[in-house]
């Protein structure tokens, strides 16, 4: 019989013999269980203890497969829990993190679907929070906000819906406050134009924001 792939079920109705359990090279808190038919499964060490699995025990491969799938989900949840407690993440960002940890794509997608259904992962909430933070501290033009969110992997529909919730007056006020801070810091108007242009604000809008400040008129920058 050829060597089976990881997680491939055995056809033996009575089960196969566990011939090896390796901790070295396994993820933290896990061990790799090897069966006599060549298949192998990654399980949590506590699962081995709870299920009484050790070398010399016979076990069906499909049972191990189910345990491995359950344990993989548990490990993903334990990995994500502290992350989601501290920060908001886009679905794509979390997916990338989990795949880099070696979790299977099918399990990753299933877990993220569950987290979205529970409201624990929500691209619209992420978008609204990110826009609010940028508008308050480091404003961007509407087009730059859209591109920034898309680069972060936010779903395009979530980006569109979140931007629609922000009116121009609110975005403009955030930009005005930022420009006023630059003026108070002594930044030249030429540099203000350049800095705001990099943030997606056209020269006409910047000129309008500067109109409230004393000083001579500024030539519109190209």
Automatic annotation (TrEMBL):
Keywords: Cytoplasm. The keyword Cytoplasm applies. It is found in: Cytoplasm. Its main location: cytoplasm. Coiled coil: none annotated. PANTHER family: REGULATORY PROTEIN RECX FAMILY PROTEIN. GO terms for cellular component: cytoplasm. The keyword Protease does not apply. Modulates RecA activity. GO terms for biological process: regulation of DNA repair. It comes from the Bacteria. Transmembrane segments: none annotated. Pfam families: RecX_HTH2 (PF02631). This is Regulatory protein RecX. Residues 122-163 form the RecX second three-helical domain. Belongs to the RecX family. Gene3D superfamilies: Winged helix-like DNA-binding domain superfamily/Winged helix DNA-binding domain (1.10.10.10).
